Structure formats: C-alpha cells, structure tokens
Amino acid sequence: MKHKKTWQLPEKILKWLKKNWPLKLLSFGIAFLIWIVVVNVDNPTKSKLFRDVKISIINEDSVTEIDKTFDIVSEDTVVIKVTEKRRVLESLSASDFTVIADMENLTEMNTVPLTVTCSNSAVTLDEITVVPSSLKVELEQIVESEFVVTVETTGTPQNGYEVGTTEVVEGKTVIIAGPESLIAKIGQVTASVSVNGISVDQRLASTLTISDKNGDTLSETQMSRLQIKDSSGVLLSDNEVTIDVELWMVLSEVPIEIETSGTPASGYEVTGVGTVPTTVNLVGTEEALSTITRIVVNEPVSVAGAMETFTQEVDLSDTLSDMENVRLASGVDPSVTVTIQIEKSGDQTVQIALSELTVLNHPENMTLTFSPADMISVTVHADDEESTILAEDITATIDLSACAEEGDYEIPVEIELPDGFTLVSDVTLTVNATETEQIEAATEE
Description:
445 residues; eleven-stranded mixed sheet; disordered C terminus; 9 helices; elongated; alpha+beta; six-stranded mixed sheet; 15% helix
C-alpha cells in the first residue's frame, strides 16, 4: 500500500525564512508602507467644485392642488463639492450630478431640501456637499382674469388691397391664470401676424405675446408661470391662436362733396365750394365699394350771414362711420379743408393762368419765381347780375422792370375788363428775383 505524499517547503527555504525572521518582517512592513505612499502620491484624495448645477423640481402638483403657485426666491442652481481620489475627480463633470427638489417635502419655512445623486458609482453620498442645501420658494395664490386679444399685422398686402378686418377664431378674449402679483402686471395681450404680399383672405397662426403695464414683454420665466386658455376655458397649445384676416379693396380718388346750409348776408351769395384735398382713397369690401361714387359730408357747412370767403376744417370720420365696411385708406388724413367762396351779388371770380399774362420788361440774367405759381384770381362786379365773364374776356398785364435786382417784390397786375364789369379788388403777384449766374454757380458747387 502506497502512502500519499504531502507537499512541504524545501528544507533550505524553511531554514532561510526562520533565519533573522524579525528583520525580514520589518522589511516587508517597510515595503508595504512605501507602496501605500507611492499610491497616494500618484492618486491623492482631493476636493473639486462643480458650479451651476441645475435644480430639478418634481411633484409641483402638490402645490397647485391647493390653488397655490410658487416662485423660486433663491438661485435655481447649486455648487457641489466632491472629495475623492484625483482619478475619480478627473472623470467627473457637472452633468454627472442630479439635484432634485421634491415639492412634497416643502417645509413650513417655505424651503425644500435638496437631494443629490451621482451617476458615477465611485462617488458616495458622504463624499458630496451641496451649497445651498435647500431651495427657497415663495408661495402665492393662483388667480385668473380675462383679457382682450389685440391683433396686430405686419407687412403690406399686394397693391390694391389693405387689411380690412382681423378676428381671433378662438374668441376676442383669453383667460389667463397665474400668480396674483403677475396677473396684476399684465397690460396687453397681443397676437401678431404677417400679411406681407397676400392677395386673398387668410387664416394665420400667431403665438400670443403678453406685455406688462409699462409695455415691456414678459420674460420666458414669467410666461412659464402662466396658463392661457381661450374664452371657453380650453388650454391653448403653445399659447397659439388662429387669426382670420379679411382683405379689403382700395378705391382711389373718390370725390368729396360739401353741402351748405343757411343764407349769406343780404346782397351776398355762395359762388364756389372747394376742398383740399378734392378726393380721397377708400378701402372696403367689394360689395360696399360698388355703390360709392362720391363722399357727401353728412354735416353741411353753415354760410348763414356770411359776407366774405372763409375756410373750415371738416372731419370725414363721422361721415365714414355711417358707411358699413368702408374706411379711409391707410395714411389718409380724415381732415379736409373746405373753402366757401362768398361774393357780393353780381361779383364773379375768374381764374387766369399765368401763361396768359402779358409780360413786359422781363429782366435779363434774372430767374423769377412767381407766387401763386399757376393761376391768379380776378374778382369783378357785373353791372347786370345776369352777365357772365370768362377768362378770355380779360386782359392781364404785368411789368417786371422792378425785378432787375435780386429781391422779393409785390408786383401789381393791370387788368382790362369789357364794358359792364368793374374790378372789385387789386390783383398782385409776389415775385422772387435771383441772378441766373449765382444759381448756376451754386449748382456747380
């Protein structure tokens, strides 16, 4: 029967280990310490700060369920300090940390404790310090209020069209819910759409813009605290509404007609009614414009007791307000200057073109500028009130010899009339004389 051998250290090795064993144990200990020192020198324990780590808020509905909302009073970021081995720290970034504020843990002091986790398993909670350690919030009552939506258009439709009407499909108003202090700041709710280049009616989408009572647009943070619903209470997706834009056609050069009321003073009569401008541009629906040939101002101008020509301002706004689906074109001033010409019975005013004047002694090397530049008015009295006079019946002559030197001159116009007519008032022309050479020199400069 064979006996199984057991393995034993060779006798020489045993003798070597037993010989001076305290010295050998000391050497082993020193070697181990050296290894520890080398490891710590090469990979020491350090601390590192990670700044601006965003706080994530959860369970917000625990506050909104009690008709409250909250505003973050402190910063919404934290600084995280990690104490770890150098190699671990070098592998970390701010994105490895998650900082959570659970609103269910809101304290009576309106603070929420922060919890931090790290995606790197080498970092334990006892190695992490977060500053601040809690989130400070302010609770506020939620209220809601109704606001009218103001529609604004940008750009210009194709030539011949203007924006006639705009309408918010979801309703003229919106209901906005949010913190009481923020709702109180709201001044205007605006929906803006571009109509540039369009030539047919359009339905366009618009994101609502809210501004405060100072006209400043609310920030993204402020907008995020609001809930915007249509007039029926339905929450608007992305705060977006739909706008129906109706285009109106442009009707150009519509004559203005002025009526008068009353009677001038005895021996006087109305000899003419003029307006500046004489026409205006309108916009409206095709149906409304189809019946318009002129604008008759609905408030007559009174001439009662008048003894001389006078002017009066008339506003077309009241007249157009009585016309459905019609208004003045963009940029048209509703104010019209009306001139009522009043003359004695038998008086007549005739307009004579400057080109029909007989000019005497036009000075050489002088450039003359006349005012008025087109027509002169000649008022005459007829012995027979039934008689009329025309421009070709009148001879008008002007002597410009006084304009031989530079300056402004009031030059009389000599008027010759046929028998049976007399001149009511003198006729003059204002003339500005400038040397032609000076004008050419100024042009060359």
